[in-house]
Specification:
By secondary structure, this protein is of the alpha/beta class. The protein has 9 helices and 12 strands. An 8-stranded parallel β-sheet has the order 3-12-11-10-9-8-7-4. Strands 1-2 form a two-stranded antiparallel ribbon. GO terms for molecular function: dihydroorotate dehydrogenase activity.
Length: 275
Amino acid sequence: MAQIGSIVISPPLINTACAWASDLDQLQALYESPFTGAVTTRTSTLTGYNETAVCGVVFTNSTTSSLNSYGFSPLPLSSYLGWVKDILSAAVQSSSVVKPFIISITASTADELRPMIALIQAAAFNALLNTSCPNISSASPSGYIPSSIHPLLTALAEAHTQDKTLTIGLKLPPYTFRGQFDAMVNVLKECRVCRPDCSWRTCRRCFSTALSLGNVHTFHKLLHGDSQTDAGLRGICIIGVGGVTTPAALAHMRRAGASVVGAATLLGETRCWSF
């Protein structure tokens, strides 16, 4: 079990924002799975992403690995908010255990982000800002560019100031050298989005489990090490993502410092959880 902001995730395993969390049936199946402690929607925009024929995913033959170019959901944010509301309402009516939902969204500017956050707040859900998608033509992931991500985090901090119950998250791309980690921690501190009661972070991988483990381990040391005195930074929880296809891989991610572990390829290739 893990508590992140106002939500409890038990067991501490979730699906990540992926193509296999795109529609009502997929979200319902993830919600009903005994292995998910929370459900993450596919990343959406306010009006829907222009999906083309180049969007897709391929799997390797010999390992549980994938390479994707599926981008964001072609469906608007309103579709996911409606589906999640229906799933949770049905769970309450049947007296079932209610799992948290994480609504994954993306925006390139603060002006685009604010109305999306307002819709999520109005529905009393939790928000995850995806800054890591590398598959959008002519658009570098904002998680690599501090000047781009700063206004987005400021908008999130403003939203939390207005609503202390809002749990927010940030999905980051994989970093490969120390300066990238330090720059992101500094941006989090400057924007004051790192209060213990409002945020978590996810670490994304490319193709390497070692890279994702290294990202989780490095952020864990920077945020929770003895030298870190900022209470807000120390309160951030890490969701580790990348290469989690076995119980052993899940255990490695937890030992590296992840409070919660996320998976997508395993779900897409097997259509089920094998944990």
